[in-house]
Inverse folding.
């Protein structure tokens, strides 16, 4: 707008004006700002205002200055000044910009016509007043204060400020406010050029409001919205689009759509190539896309599926079109569609017969299972009602009640008899459900038919499994409890008794493990057949699991009747059983408890019958025992001792005694056997015969045995360090301890902690260990032998005495049981057995040791039989470690005469 000023003022007279006052006044045109656009208009107006300011200054020349000029020069100059001043005033008055000039104190010296028009102030009334006339009286005056402060510092100020009109109203102006200095650098005037921008600000405000409404509307959209220019750069993106494309707010602006770093997937899950990306394709081909589905995969691998729609947008009349694109998140819709497809497929593949009807119960569709169950094809039933399935077994009242219930509640379920196409009637469980649209009445009904025949059979199978043993078909413990409670109730009424028999099949585990589970199963079935021959129909036989059975004898008059049944069972079991080429013999150990004598409830009777059965086993199996209070006391004692054994481990109440072993040929001590003793705080010294069986049954033998190993190895090494000649330390291993998975580690730990060489450790095994789980036993023995440990078989001759096992397990020594040694001198059979054991062992390159040698005579006989070692009271009783050390030292300094085994 300000270029008009330059057009009004001719170039020639402007140049003349500059020549005129530049000599008198330092006007630095090059340093003047060009704040108002276009800049040349501002420069022109500023030049004109500066020239006018020079003229005004000249009019105020004091008398002293005037006298310094010659009259001629003064007249000439005044003429020239008046000439171009007139033109300056004319140009400035015609300039559309508001222009005013003030003196150094801010008082108006000149205002143009535009000033009067925009402010309403008459020029003559304004001159001489200060700029405060235009400044607002409220906070809007801050720009004027800043403008004035900058100008006083000699700086040019440019900006926007509100101006007060003569009627008090305010309007906005763009302002250029510049100081003018003389040659000495003093500010003499201020020039202001203003432009009314009220309308522009109003338009901009409306645009901003419109843009705000647009951004607010697009920000509230759940759909993504982007505007893309013809060059492919994104001009605008709403928050939803930024979220879809995993970009921060504003992060998409000025970015090419194809450069957004996110995986784009086709519907088949493959990645789009950059050139095939929908946005790129829409721009490239200048085409609009509708309903295109693609996926966006984020950094975590999650995929969001979007529906893409685009429209071309021509932003300039002659320019290439841009693009407006929307993205709608259809992830949940796709999931819903997938669920609907899954539901449809589930109905189609369901094993239940399903049909769907309209509101009038007209059949619209049926699934394949319905066709299979009823024999009707789909096209035979469509358009009918389900009533055509009626078999006639349900009367009219049944169907009326059923229909009334459906109309009242929209659902019905119950058992119904239908008829197949072939005329066969069958029971079904029918479930009718109404399908409602919103809150209205059902628009459709779903009928689900479940064949009750299959369900009843399944229930029977479940009932059988829940209350019967699957192998034998006998009642299990759940059903047995019910039978016992019924029998006890009847016995109370009849004043009779009920016997509960607990049966355990003897040696079943050995048969099952050695011959296999199929043979074991057949043996159990045959045992059941024989048990059934021994009881009445009113009695109950139950299998508890494994090889344990229970028999409930109703209406028992006395114990003799129970004994006769038990003896009959044993008689039946005496006949061998032939299974898969194996001829097997077994028996039952039976415990008996009597209601009401031994208990008033099932659990008490069961516990006491179990206790009696274990006593039958201890008595040698193949027999029966009745529960007595003495048995109960023994059970209580057993539990008490188990508790005390646990406490004994914690309180270190166990000690080891040692019994020496002598080489018969050399007469030297070649080993000692470590024997555990329990020095109880409550009972004193407890015999191993009392507590070892309890420890084995409770599993405490494992930690106790580990302690024995550690202590025996420690003591053996301690004697070696004390100067006693090394000898073998023999330690007994229990069968329970040997089967424990941590045995090898316990042995290694004992050797490492004691620093004892493995050649001085001998482990004594019983024959029962060798015959149980032969492969696992063989592997354990191999590992022990690989450590350099010696192995001996304890109590040889009292068990199976299998030569095959001796050869296979590579033991080092046989220990002849004292039952053969004790009567060796008087019993020729014992002598023959001992001689045979020694000869057999030597043929297998095994050493022999006889235990229980209590007389010199026995020692002499064993020497004659060429037995290698002896152990017994004749040599020494078991003794504590300190006494054993004295014994060893005394024998270390003496020799043993070979004649008649006499010690010298």
């Amino acid at each position: 707008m300000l270029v008009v000023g330059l057009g009004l003022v001719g170039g020639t007279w402007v140049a003349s004006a500059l020549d005129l006052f530049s000599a008198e006044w330092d006007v630095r045109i090059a340093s003047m700002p060009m704040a108002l656009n276009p800049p040349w208009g501002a420069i022109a107006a500023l030049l004109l205002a500066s020239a006018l300011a020079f003229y005004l200054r000249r009019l105020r020349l004091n008398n002293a200055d005037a006298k310094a000029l010659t009259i001629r020069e003064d007249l000439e100059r005044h003429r020239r000044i008046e000439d171009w001043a007139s033109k300056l005033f004319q140009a400035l008055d015609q300039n559309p910009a508001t222009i005013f000039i003030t003196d150094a104190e801010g008082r108006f010296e000149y205002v143009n016509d535009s000033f009067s028009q925009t402010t309403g102030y008459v020029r003559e009334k304004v001159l001489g007043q200060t700029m405060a006339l235009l400044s607002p009286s409220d906070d809007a005056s801050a720009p004027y204060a800043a403008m004035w402060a900058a100008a006083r510092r000699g700086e040019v100020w440019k900006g926007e400020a509100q101006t007060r009109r003569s009627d008090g109203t305010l309007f906005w102006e763009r302002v250029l406010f510049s100081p003018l200095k003389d040659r000495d650098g003093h500010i003499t005037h201020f020039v202001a050029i203003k432009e009314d921008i009220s309308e522009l600000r109003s338009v901009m405000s409306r645009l901003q409001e419109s843009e705000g409404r647009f951004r607010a509307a697009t920000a509230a959209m759940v759909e993504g919205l982007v505007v893309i220019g013809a060059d492919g750069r994104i001009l605008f993106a709403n928050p939803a689009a930024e979220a879809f494309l995993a970009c921060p707010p504003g992060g998409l602006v000025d970015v090419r759509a194809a450069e957004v770093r996110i995986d784009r997937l086709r519907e088949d899950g493959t990645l789009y190539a950059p050139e095939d990306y929908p946005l790129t394709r829409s721009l490239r081909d200048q085409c609009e896309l509708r309903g295109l589905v693609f996926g966006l995969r984020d950094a975590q691998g999650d995929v969001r599926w979007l529906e893409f729609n685009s429209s071309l947008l021509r932003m300039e009349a002659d320019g290439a079109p841009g693009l407006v694109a929307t993205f709608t998140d259809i992830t949940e819709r796709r999931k819903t569609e997938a669920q609907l497809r899954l539901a449809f497929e589930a109905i189609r593949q369901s094993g239940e017969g399903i049909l769907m009807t309209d509101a009038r119960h007209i059949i619209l569709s049926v699934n394949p299972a319905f066709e299979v169950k009823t024999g009707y094809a789909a096209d035979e039933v469509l358009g009918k009602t389900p009533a055509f399935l009626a078999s006639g077994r349900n009367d009219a009242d049944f169907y009326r009640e059923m229909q009334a219930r459906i109309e009242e509640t929209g659902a019905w379920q119950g058992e119904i008899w239908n008829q197949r196409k072939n005329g066969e009637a069958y029971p079904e469980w029918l479930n009718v459900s109404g399908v409602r649209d919103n809150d209205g009445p059902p628009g459709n009904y779903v009928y689900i038919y479940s064949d009750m025949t299959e369900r009843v059979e399944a229930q029977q199978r479940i009932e059988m499994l829940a209350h019967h043993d699957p192998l034998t078909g006998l009642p299990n413990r759940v059903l047995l409890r019910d039978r016992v409670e019924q029998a006890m109730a009847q016995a109370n009424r009849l004043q009779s008794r009920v016997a509960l028999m607990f049966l355990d099949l003897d040696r079943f585990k050995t048969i099952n493990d050695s011959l296999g589970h199929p043979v074991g199963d057949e043996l159990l079935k045959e045992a059941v057949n024989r048990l059934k021959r021994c009881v009445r129909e009113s009695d109950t036989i139950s299998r508890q699991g494994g090889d344990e059975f229970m028999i409930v004898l109703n209406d028992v008059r006395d114990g003799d009747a129970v004994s006769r049944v038990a003896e009959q069972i044993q008689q039946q079991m005496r006949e061998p059983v032939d299974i898969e080429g194996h001829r097997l013999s077994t028996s039952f150990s039976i415990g008996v408890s009597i209601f009401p004598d031994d208990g008033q409830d099932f659990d008490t009777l069961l516990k006491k019958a179990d206790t009696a059965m274990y006593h039958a086993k201890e008595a040698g199996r193949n027999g029966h025992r009745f529960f007595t209070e003495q048995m109960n006391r023994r059970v209580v004692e057993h539990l008490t001792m188990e508790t005390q054994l646990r406490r004994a481990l914690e309180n270190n109440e166990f000690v080891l005694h040692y019994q020496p072993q002598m080489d018969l040929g050399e007469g030297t001590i070649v080993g000692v056997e470590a024997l555990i003793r329990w020095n109880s705080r409550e009972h004193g010294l407890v015999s191993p015969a009392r507590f070892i069986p309890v420890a084995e049954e409770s599993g405490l033998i494992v930690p106790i045995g580990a302690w024995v190993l550690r202590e025996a190895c420690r003591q053996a090494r301690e004697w070696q360090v004390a100067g006693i000649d090394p000898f073998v330390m023999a330690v007994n291993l229990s069968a329970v301890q040997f089967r424990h998975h941590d045995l090898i580690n316990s042995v290694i730990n004992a050797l490492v902690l004691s620093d004892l060489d493995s050649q001085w450790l001998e482990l004594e095994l019983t024959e029962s260990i060798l015959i149980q789980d032969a492969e696992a036993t063989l592997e354990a023995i191999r590992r022990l032998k690989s450590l350099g440990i010696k192995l001996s078989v304890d109590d040889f001759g009292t068990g199976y005495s299998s030569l095959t096992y001796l050869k296979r397990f590579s033991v080092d020594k046989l220990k002849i049981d004292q039952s053969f040694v004790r009567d060796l001198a008087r019993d020729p059979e014992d002598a023959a057995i001992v001689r045979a054991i020694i000869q057999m062992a030597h043929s297998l390159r095994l050493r022999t040791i006889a235990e229980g040698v209590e007389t010199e005579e026995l020692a002499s006989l064993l020497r004659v039989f060429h037995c290698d070692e002896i152990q017994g009271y004749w040599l020494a009783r078991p003794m504590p470690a300190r006494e054993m050390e004295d014994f060893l030292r005394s024998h270390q300094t003496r020799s043993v005469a070979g004649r008649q085994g006499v010690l010298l």
